[in-house]
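step=encode ok
step=design start
structure_in=
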């Protein structure tokens, strides 16, 4: 697992560079409702006011399909905007481990007359920042881009503390929070969160907290916060706290954009099983169907059992020569069929299994195989 996370981190870092190069190749300008928008193919830049601007990434796709996406709002976007883009681009290529989602980088502009503006807006003036998000940024994105109104938020340091206050004061605005290395889970903010959790029932929120082991000044508050969130799991709160020995104050955002998003989207990947026993441990074919039904509902995609899951289930039943289990899978998922894109190997593999258990299907599969691979010599040993 550690090796997988390191590989994902490397992929994300490489993709950040590739994405930055790609998005800055071409430039065009447009004006919309008085907001200056700079379009870089998938990327849009919008100036909200002199204090705030946003960068918006929209997945490329058929705009006439009506497809809508969740949105991730990244505070301090000028530093972390590309990480969220790279995560989905990397893990959608071949492996399909991440859904597509819009990314909005929120940039608090440095002003000569107020060099502490970021700290103010995320601290003592948090209500002003919340108002900007609620009344200007979120409505603008929802109106002009294919958002499905499911929102996520990432914040580091003071922006992480602000994220906690944002939830406490507006618990229905955002579903998923990724909060990295906050020194500001203060004596005011944690009790305010406790009060919100107590007053609001039927919540549906995710909290991913990450902190480096070297950040000793913040471990007590993080422990208190994690314990509080766990106490409200029955009320719809999902949480995970990673006290990391691999990351420090500067690098915990990398954990948020790899392990954090992997955790949040853990119900999205097309599953792979490695044995019949593996399917049983998951709960059997009925549990697999339930997983894909829930997946379809959450991500507005097909509820059918995924191609990879079906293939791995039937493959291992055949490999273990378990005809009874193979049939039980078919009763739940429908008859298993190879496609015209299947290789000679898999026609031969399933053909030999059918020969032992159901000669009629072996004959049917052989006829399909010779039509798909008419010059194959391997099928002679079907």
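sequence_out=
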């Amino acid at each position: 697992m550690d090796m997988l996370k390191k590989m994902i981190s490397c992929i994300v870092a490489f993709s950040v560079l590739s994405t930055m190069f790609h998005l800055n190749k071409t430039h065009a300008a447009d004006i919309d409702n008085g907001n200056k928008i700079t379009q870089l193919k998938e990327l849009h830049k919008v100036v909200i006011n002199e204090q705030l601007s946003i960068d918006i990434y929209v997945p490329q796709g058929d705009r006439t399909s009506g497809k809508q996406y969740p949105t991730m709002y990244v505070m301090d976007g000028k530093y972390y905007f590309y990480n969220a883009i790279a995560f989905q681009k990397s893990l959608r290529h071949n492996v399909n481990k991440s859904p597509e989602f819009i990314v909005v980088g929120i940039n608090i502009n440095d002003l000569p007359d107020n060099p502490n503006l970021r700290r103010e807006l995320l601290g003592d003036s948090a209500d002003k920042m919340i108002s900007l998000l609620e009344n200007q940024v979120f409505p603008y994105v929802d109106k002009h881009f294919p958002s499905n109104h499911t929102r996520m938020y990432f914040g580091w340091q003071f922006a992480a503390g602000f994220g906690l206050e944002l939830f406490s004061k507006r618990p229905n605005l955002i579903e998923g929070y990724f909060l990295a290395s906050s020194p500001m889970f203060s004596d005011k903010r944690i009790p305010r969160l406790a009060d919100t959790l107590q007053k609001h029932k039927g919540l549906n929120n995710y909290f991913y907290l990450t902190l480096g082991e070297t950040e000793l000044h913040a471990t007590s508050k993080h422990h208190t916060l994690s314990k509080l969130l766990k106490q409200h799991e029955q009320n719809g709160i999902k949480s995970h706290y990673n006290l990391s020995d691999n990351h420090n104050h500067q690098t915990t955002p990398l954990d948020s954009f790899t392990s954090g998003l992997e955790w949040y989207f853990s119900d999205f990947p097309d599953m792979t099983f490695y044995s019949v026993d593996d399917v049983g441990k998951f709960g059997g074919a009925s549990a697999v169907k339930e997983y894909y039904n829930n997946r379809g509902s959450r991500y507005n995609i097909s509820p059918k059992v995924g191609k990879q899951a079906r293939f791995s289930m039937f493959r291992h039943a055949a490999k273990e020569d378990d005809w009874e289990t193979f049939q039980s899978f078919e009763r739940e998922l429908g008859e298993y069929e190879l496609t015209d894109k299947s290789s000679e190997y898999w026609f031969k593999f399933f053909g030999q299994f059918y020969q032992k258990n159901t000669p009629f299907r072996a004959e049917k599969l052989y006829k399909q195989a010779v039509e798909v691979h008419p010059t194959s010599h391997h099928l002679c040993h079907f």
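step=design ok
step=annotate ok -> Confidence is low (pLDDT under 50) at residues 10-34.
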